[in-house]
Every structure is written in C-alpha cells, then in structure tokens.
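Hi R.,

Here's the input for the zinc ion complex you asked about:
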Amino acid sequence: MAFAIISDLHSNLEALEAVLARTEMLGVSEILCLGDVVGYGADPGPTTRLVMHHCKWTILGNHDWGLFHSLDDFNPLARDALHLSRRRLKPHWLVPGRRAAWEFLRKLPERMADHGFLFFHGSPRDPVMEYVLRSDGFLEPEKMNAIFAAIDRPTFVGHTHWPGIHRGDFKFTQANDDCREFDLNGEPCVVNVGSVGQPRDGDPRASFAVVDRGRVEIHRVAYDFRRTQAKILAAGLHPALAERLARGK
Ligand code: ZN
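And here is the predicted structure with zinc ion in place:
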C-alpha cells in the first residue's frame, strides 16, 4: 500500500490541512512525518495536534529540538517564531490539554527505519542538524561520501525545504512538475520530500512525497497562504515570514 511522507510543516495549519485532504483523496495507508512540526508559523498547537492524530510516527526536527534547548544558533526570525511556539505550547494550568502535545514534541526520536527505508530530518550522519544540500554533490564530495557510507538503502530526509533526489553518483535531480517521479531500485539514495509549510524552491505549493511499490512521487498542493500570512502578521512575527510563503522562497 502507498504511504505518504511529510516534513517541515512549520506551524502552517492551512498547508497541512490541504496536504491531509490530498493524502485522503490518494488513499494512502499511512503518513510518516520527518519533523519541524513547529517554528516560523503562528499555529504550533493545532498543527501538532493534527500530526499527532494523523501520522503513524514523527521524528525530531531542529525547530522541534529548539523548543527545549538554547536558541543561540537560530537566526533572529526563527528565534522569535520559536519563542511564540513555546508560549503557545507550554503546559499551563489555565489552558488544559497542552501537556500531551508538549510531551509528544519533547520525546520525538531522531531517526526511524520503516517499510525497508531509513528516515531522518537532516542527514544520516547528523540526523537533526545537518543539511544535505543540492550543491553538495559537486561542492562537497567528501561530505556526500560520508553520508552515503552511512546508508545501505533508500533514505528520506527534509530540512532543506527543497524536494529532489541524490543518487549514488551524488547528482541531485530536482523535483518539479515535469520530473516528479523517481524509481528507488532499492539502492542507496537520499530523497528530500520538500516542505509542507514553507517551500523554498520557488514553488509556493505545499510539498510531500508518496511512496508506492519502489517508486516515489513528489506531490504539490496549492493552499490559501493568505490566511496563513494574516495569522503570522497578527501574531506579531516578522513580515518576511509571511511574505515568503507567497513566493515559495
Ligand atoms: Zn524546516
């Protein structure tokens, strides 16, 4: 049965709802989540609760990690958004029901193996923090050597918000409307499923993957990003975090 992989939701409720509606239409058997449930957006609570309800499992992203650790290494915009996420998620005796989502995020695992594949937020050798960039194949061959040495089968990641696939020759093929289905052949490769809540490849539509019988397909779904933008501005977050959603950058 086909299953879906989502990543980098970033508190974008409207994008997640659109993706869940599409996965239901596609009839996938389960949904796996590669982390960064929170950060950047204004709806960390509802987004986390939807993930808890719909996903078979979720792994830890760097923004989820940031809820519970020092934010020194985050850029100022990301830091502000994580402060908002903390305020809206932290258990409080006057706001019942927060504890379950808080504990869910605090206990996320760093890696998963399922369906004969491997799953990380960032990369196989540094699961939460390291980016596998599309330029790494020709700029950082040593890094790609180390990453491919750490895997023995097709592997799925998120984190860069840029969907595509690194094959064993380290070449990156970007997923777009003309080229969005890839054979996995059971061989080591690194597939980036893109971002639900903050795409950065110039396409503002939410991105996710569906795996079916050894093939992966990247799907894009349009959603009402104006509603998401209005909430980000109303929450007092930096306007750049709203504006980028219209451009997918
Ligand atoms: Zn992210």
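One thing worth noting: The pocket of zinc ion is lined by residues 8, 10, 36, 61, 159, 161 (CB under 6 Å).

Cheers,
M.
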